């Protein structure tokens, strides 16, 4: 599943989460920190993973989750989310446009046909 990480979405998440870190919303601050453009918040990416998975599996719900962030995701980037079912655990891999794995994680689910 693909999703474009937009500047607007990052700003909305910054407002909602009360995360005013400049590298997420200010292009100059992002450049000073070594990034071409503002970067997405890790929890925004995790939330997207949950939302995208649940939109395809509406009978399930997430009981627990963990994610490791390996590299930043720049704004205005298409991101690929790959989900692999391991019974009640769903492994997720988030890959940027350049093919680099940006995050990896797992969440446990209940409900639906794959639950035990």
From TrEMBL:
Gene3D superfamilies: Hotdog Thioesterase (3.10.129.10). It holds the Pfam family MaoC_dehydratas. GO terms for molecular function: (3R)-hydroxyacyl-[acyl-carrier-protein] dehydratase activity. InterPro entries: HotDog_dom_sf, MaoC-like_dom, UPF0336/Enoyl-CoA_hydratase. Residues 3-89 form the MaoC-like domain. Coiled coil: none annotated. GO terms for biological process: fatty acid biosynthetic process. PANTHER family: HYDROXYACYL-THIOESTER DEHYDRATASE TYPE 2, MITOCHONDRIAL, HYDROXYACYL-THIOESTER DEHYDRATASE TYPE 2, MITOCHONDRIAL-RELATED. This is MaoC-like domain-containing protein. It comes from Paenibacillus protaetiae.
């Amino acid at each position: 599943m693909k999703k474009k990480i937009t500047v607007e979405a990052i700003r909305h998440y910054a407002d909602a989460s009360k995360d005013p870190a400049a590298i997420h919303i200010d292009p100059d601050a992002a450049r000073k920190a070594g990034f071409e453009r503002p970067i997405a918040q890790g929890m925004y990416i995790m939330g997207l993973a949950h939302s995208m998975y649940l939109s395809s599996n509406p009978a399930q719900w997430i009981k627990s989750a963990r994610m490791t962030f390996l590299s930043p995701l720049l704004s205005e980037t298409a991101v690929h989310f790959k989900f692999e079912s391991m019974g009640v655990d769903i492994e997720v891999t988030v890959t940027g446009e350049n093919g680099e794995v940006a995050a990896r994680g797992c969440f446990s689910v209940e409900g639906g046909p794959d639950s035990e």
